[in-house]
Amino acid sequence: MNSLKSVPSEVVLCNTSVVFMCAFIKHALNKTTRWAVHVFLTFVSVCKSHLLADLCLLTLVLSWFKGLVQVSEQQKIIMSEWKNMSRDVLERQYSPSRWSHRMSADDVIKAHVAALKSGTEKARAVTQTLLDVPYGDGEEEKLDVYVPRISSPDVPMLIYFHGGYWQFLSKDESGFLVVPLVQKGVVVVAVGYSIAPKGNMDLMVSQVRRSIVSVLQQYSHISGLYLCGHSAGAHLAAMVLSTDWSQYDISPQLKGVFLVSGIYDLQPILSTYVNEPLKMTEEVALRNSPSQLVSRLSVSLCDVVIAVAQNDSPEFRKQSEEYFKLLVSAGFKVSFEDVPNTDHFSIIEQLVDENYHLTQLLLKMMGKC
């Protein structure tokens, strides 16, 4: 007691305030928020009673606590199951243009379409093409084929399925990635399909599967068949991977599947604006969700690459991560590419560049790098 009396009361109370603050920080970092708040309120009570707490220290704690709450809310959105999200939050998660850091949502879409059109025009100007090759009777059931000028006995074929949320774009903007591939001796095929509202999900999946059958019948001399898709196109490519080919009297030997920023579980978008033209029911969404079909797959020898943009939304990233884990668990040879400094659109646009990481990876998959 004598030693305590010799210490000024200001020092004792200041030390007490520091202890309270340290306890608060410790528990907050451990995410025991309720206890952290209790300690914080006790600290404030001491400050009020004795008027000796350091005002700067209190300001620091308040500022830190505000930041903690903001981070906690963001983590809550990221970690929540989609079923627990409000419609507004879910629609933001599934609006890729709202996550780009390069420009506004409207501008990034306009720039994306312009980039695809420009790249396709260039490809058609410098490459031999066979345009609007039918693979079925439907108006949109056509292929654009880009052929290397130099023939070779080793001719891999890449089939590309475009994105656009199953309701935008077409094969006519899908030749942008051609030039670096054709220059290496790869045949590239861009597939058209009936987007919504004219087409529905069952029809689109059927069309891309039938496009594979038609291609193999017309180009039986190819050395290997590879698939690539972006966004909705990645979903369609994954559905091709999930096909029971016994229904088609053919057994395509897929050697590689390249999936870029795709959706592999359609259930989260059922209540969003994306589904308004698609009009999917839960039953339709389930039977057309690649993540729901992995257990039915026979382990394939083909390589699978799942790529996602650094600035894709948390839900888009989660879709890719979870599908990757499912394929790994099923025994597939699959790799995951988290591409830095890209968003949902630039990750695919940059395939025009031969030196781009994903272009090199795609060429390597086909033995052309």
Q: What value does the Rg take, in angstroms?
A: 27 Å
What string gives the helices and strands in order?
HHHHHHEEEHEHEHEHHHEHEHH
CATH-assigned fold name of the largest domain: Rossmann fold
How many domains, in number, for the residues?
Answer: 2
Estimate the strand proportion.
5-15%
Structural summary, described in words:
Strands 1-2-4-3-5-6-7-8 form an 8-stranded mixed β-sheet, with helices on both faces. The chain has helices at residues 2-5, 9-29, 33-50, 55-79, 87-93, 105-126, 178-182, 201-218, 232-241, 275-278, 282-287, 290-293, 314-329, 346-349, 357-365; strands at residues 128-134, 142-147, 156-161, 187-191, 224-230, 254-260, 303-309, 333-339. The longest helix has 25 residues, at 55-79. Residues 1-80 have low confidence and may be disordered. Helix 2 (9-29) runs antiparallel to helix 3. It is built from 15 helices and 8 strands. Helix 9 (232-241) links the parallel strand 5 (224-230) and strand 6. With 369 residues, the protein is of the alpha/beta class. It has 2 domains: 2-79; 93-365, Alpha/Beta hydrolase fold, catalytic domain (Rossmann fold, 3-Layer(aba) Sandwich). The protein is globular and about 55 Å long. Helix content is 47%, strand content 14%.
